[in-house]
Amino acid sequence: MNRGLCLLNHRLTEQQKAELESEFSVSRILLPPAGIQACWASIPTEKLLQPSMLDPFIDWIDDTSAVGDYLVIQGEFGSTVYMVGYAFSKGLVPLHSVTKRVAHEYREGEIVYRTYIFRHICFRKYLHYRADKEGMYGHDLHRIE
């Protein structure tokens, strides 16, 4: 059985837990400590994101994971891209949730209110582009001019 680490801004739903178990054979779900979880949910909004700001997440992954574990990861875009790359480098299998978003909108005079409902559809493996392999995923980097 596999383990699934979760680095998210929210808790997994029961449907998501069940899918990890049935589709990915995850028998144990590991969550970061509360402090690390709170940091992930509040990545600073400064213009420059320093790699050292992501060290707590890297340390948690290093201390918790083993090659072949799944990592469910979503959050602030730049941090997520960085951490997905790190997960690949450590031999982990990063996953993201595919969702359907339904918008509801109503007006009160000149004010427009919009709410979104997100519904989980499935987990999907992040794709790993490898520029070192000619023809990987149908791309030939030598033909780009």
Description:
The chain has helices spanning 14-24, 34-40, 55-64, 77-89; strands spanning 2-7, 26-30, 70-73, 93-108, 111-125. The protein is α/β, with parallel strands linked by helices and 145 residues long. It has one domain (2-143). Strands 2-1-3-4-5 form a 5-stranded mixed β-sheet, with helices on both faces. Strand 1 (2-7), helix 1 and strand 2 (26-30) form a beta-alpha-beta unit. It is globular and about 55 Å long.
Describe what is shown at a glance.
This protein has 4 helices and 5 strands; from the N terminus they run βαβααβαββ. It is of the alpha/beta class.
Structural class: alpha/beta
Order of the strands making up the biggest sheet: 2-1-3-4-5
- Outline the low-pLDDT stretches: 139-145
Question: What is the percentage of strand-forming residues?
Answer: 25-35%
Order of helical and strand elements: EHEHHEHEE
- Overall geometry: globular
Q: Please report the distance between the alpha carbons of the first and last residues.
A: 46 Å
Salient structural properties:
4 helices, 28% helix, globular, 145 residues, disordered C terminus, five-stranded mixed beta sheet, alpha/beta, 32% strand
Write the layout of secondary structure elements.
Elements: E1 2-7, H1 14-24, E2 26-30, H2 34-40, H3 55-64, E3 70-73, H4 77-89, E4 93-108, E5 111-125
Parallel strand pairs: 1-2, 1-3, 3-4
Antiparallel strand pairs: 4-5
